[in-house]
Amino acid sequence: MSSTQTPSPIVRAFFDRPTGSLQYVFHDPETRRGAIIDPVWNYYPEAGAVTHESADEILAYIKAQDLQIDWVLDTHPHADHFSAGPYLAEKLGAPHGIGEKVTGVQKLWQEKYNLADFPTDGRQWDRLFAEGEEFMVGTIPVRVMFSPGHTLASITYVAGDAAFVHDTLMMPASGTSRADFPGGSADDLWASIRAILDLPARTRVYIGHDYPPAGEAPQYMATVAEHRLSNRHVKDGISREEFIATRQARDATLKLPARMLEALQVNIRGGRLPEPESDGHNYLKKPIGRFDPR
Questions:
Q1: Is-above-0.85 flag for pTM?
Q2: Has residue 16 been placed in a domain?
Q3: Where in the sequence is the domain holding 164, given as residue range(s)?
Q4: Residue 56 domain-assigned?
Q5: How close are the terminal C-alpha atoms of the chain, in Å?
Q6: How many domains is the chain built from?
Q7: Fewer CB within 10 Å, N side or C side of the chain?
Q8: Which of 153, 152, 148, 187 is nearest to 168 (CA)?
């Protein structure tokens, strides 16, 4: 690689079909050091059961590829699946990180769940990343971009020529992700996306969700150039006002994710269940009458 060439990590996607969630492992081909982004802890709401098959698939890949994992990374507290960050961090001896604005999400949901004694300082993670912060994974430089809009804490990890944007952009034919969750903003989402689309045209953009028909594989990567050319919500020529109107009209038709009220109380804890109660069991609770049932 020449001194002016942008490092290019090897990226492997993993798909959780029940939630349409994409998880990633990227690594430096020179050193075989890598990172995990947005791993899923499987949750079965009909049984109140949690399992680790998605995370164990990632572990098997890491072992088969002989990788050394430096980081387990979350882009934001998810509303549709539980984070497997703590499980993988413990298995791999790697630190668990997220953006520093997560404390705002913790405070917001602390109130909604009436968690009077819940700590909202981000201590549930090993590292809270600031806007513009950089770190290395082998020889791959990773830069943190604050990308609010979908949530007030969302971040993008730009790892060499790959950007992991999760719930900010969808594939170009689908457009963008919703901005109507508590703390979300279509205006902020527009600004975040324009910053992502100002990255070099060849940057590979890895998204967080796809919902293919049964039996079909998900799509999960398009370049910045492809988004600027054909993304139905933000391609070149679409104005901020047009985007906000389109996004808000679409969001007004959407129901809440089926697992949201369980997922947020786990994910503000960094991917941990509430502490066991006196009988030794963990319990999740739902706020009643706080959200529109549309």
A1: yes
A2: yes
A3: 10-257
A4: yes
A5: 53
A6: 1
A7: C
A8: 148
